[in-house]
Amino acid sequence: AIQMTQSPSSLSASVGDRVTITCRTSQGIGNDLGWYQQKPGKAPKLLIYAASSLQSGVPSRFSGSGSGTDFTLTISSLQPEDFATYYCLHDYNYPLTFGPGTKVDIK
Amino acid sequence: EVQLVESGGGLVQPGGSLRLSCAVSGFTFSDHHMDWVRQAPGRGLEWLGRTKSKVRSYTTEYAASVKGRFTISRDDSKNSLYLQMNSLKTEDTAMYYCVRVTPVASRDALDLWGQGTMVTVSS
User: Fold this and answer.
1) Among residues A4, A56, A69, B73, which is most buried (max CB within 10 A)?
2) Chain B environment of A55 (Cβ under 8 Å)
């Protein structure tokens, strides 16, 4: 199975900050990667698919990049509603695997 | 309204069985692959498995952690997804999510999630 790592595991940031989260896979997966946001007590929500495509309805301050083994989720200007945990997920082959998550909280 | 509603969670003893259901509405269920994902308390997300759509012969795929113990099935006539869980262990304690898979840009996106149903395995 493909192993996923995310960095950092947590970060503290202020409203308006630019935030970057990295996901790395144990083997190349092309651009078969998505990013998900989860708020406490809620189900996850799809933000980005195919590494860089923005899901309908997701604010444009979210962007994704990368291919192969290294991927990035960027929030260009952090908003109060963005404090959450973010997960990457590969869909290159089975089994799908999630990254361990990055918790973004208020500085 | 487009939604997924899980049910069937609860308290079960180790070694026991439980069947989760997911009722789907607002979209053509038969067109979509469907996944189960779980989250243990305070932990990250874990993909459990997938049932593919009829065009893919309802093929199933599983994570190693549940293969042989869990079975995913669907009934397109009832717009329902199921997760049969046998030989349950304490480490299966988690919130279980039903998830729609939608092909976008030739990729599979987990684009619609249910609210989850909690399973607690304890004596």
Assistant:
1) A4
2) 109, 111
Contact criterion met (CB < 8 Å) for B113 and A53: no
* Record: contact B62-A34, CB cut-off 8 A: no
Cβ(A4)–Cβ(A87) under 8 Å? no
Model confidence pLDDT, tens digit, residues B15-63: 999 999 999 999 999 999 999 999 999 999 999 999 999 999 999 999 9
Q: For residues B53 and B60, is the Cβ–Cβ distance under 8 A? A: no
Q: Does A99 contact B at CB distance below 8 Å?
A: yes
Residue B58's alpha-carbon distances to A6, A12, B72, B80, B99, in angstroms, are 33, 44, 10, 13, 16
pLDDT tens figures, A3-37: 999 999 999 999 999 999 999 999 999 999 999 99
> Which residue in the set A49, A95, A96 is minimally distant from B104, CB to CB?
A49
Query: B110 and A36 in contact by Cβ < 8 A?
Result: yes
Angle at B118 between CA B78 and CA B77, to 5 degrees: 5
- DSSP H or E segment with residue B7: strand B3-7
Q: Is A35 on the interface with B (CB under 8 A)?
A: no
Rounded to whole angstroms, the Cα distance separating A45 from A23 reads 17
Name the β-bridge partners of A49: A53
Give yes or no for a contact between A9 and A53, defined as CB atoms under 8 angstroms apart.
no
Name every chain B residue with its beta carbon within 8 A of the beta carbon of A96: 35, 47, 50
Contacts of A99 in chain B (CB under 8 A): 44
